[in-house]
Amino acid sequence: MEKQLLGALEAGGTKMVCATGYADGTIVETAEFPTTTPEETMALVVDWFKQRSIAALGIGAFGPTAVNPSSPHYGHILETPKTAWRFFDMLGSLQNELNVPCGYDTDVNVACLGEHAFGCAQGLDNVVYLTIGTGVGAGVMVGGQLIHGMLHPEAGHILVVRDPADTIGDDSACPYHSNCLEGLIAGPAVKKRWGGKRASELAEDPAAMDLLAGYLAQALMTYILCYAPQRIVIGGGVADHTPVVALARKKAAELLNGYLVTPELEDIDSYIVNNSLEGKQGIMGCLALGAQALAQ
Ligand code: ZN
Description:
Layout: E1 6-11, E2 15-21, E3 27-34, H1 38-50, E4 56-61, H2 90-98, E5 102-106, H3 107-118, E6 127-132, E7 136-142, E8 145-146, H4 181-185, H5 187-193, H6 206-227, E9 231-235, H7 237-240, H8 244-256, H9 263-266, H10 268-271, E10 272-274, H11 281-295
Parallel strand pairs: 1-4, 4-5, 6-9, 9-10
Antiparallel strand pairs: 1-2, 2-3, 6-7, 7-8
């Protein structure tokens, strides 16, 4: 196939990251626009791509969103606290304006795809990608396919058992669940519990890291048991700027308590890992998704 210029759009809750590049993951150019209202934001995004004559576009959108092509709401943002975006037809509006083949998935599913296509999950068909930042999200690939079912996995909101030492209070930082992973370890939970501090400021605080790693380890055990991944890749600010992944992998092994014996778990340092693409796994995954859309 000719080396055609592809578009990549990471549509996040706070900013839109646009890029052009190629199917081999090479990024040519990037731009960022703040996520305000659909009218304002999408006009900037569409204009940027229109000036660059892309052959196809890969979109990784914030959720919840409908990623199953058989859904009547395919490509729409669904119920979201960002009310201006509720039921916005993200995919349809971009397809109409740009008139090129578009691939559509969640921001975390495309990050999973990025690690699979170009990063530390190459050659593996069963992968969990977890991001721990302002929220917690999981992209999941099973049998070489990203999961599109009723919706997409929302594995950031699984329940965990409260640590008795936790001082966060009765309510977590998740408005829906008082004991979910996101509500106890994402950025807002860290700020709520530790007087407005960011996770990176607590990286040298053993008690704080121990608490966060304990919750993460519970979730990792659940993902290992339910998805049988061949590797778990973790990104996002809380994971990138603290030792929490290294601590959590040890604790996950303790929780599993020898129940599973596999070569992967015997080499747990290579099994549960930090992301390998320096924060570019999402946008590179969008390029991979755009290449898929072009090939179809
Ligand atoms: Zn929750």
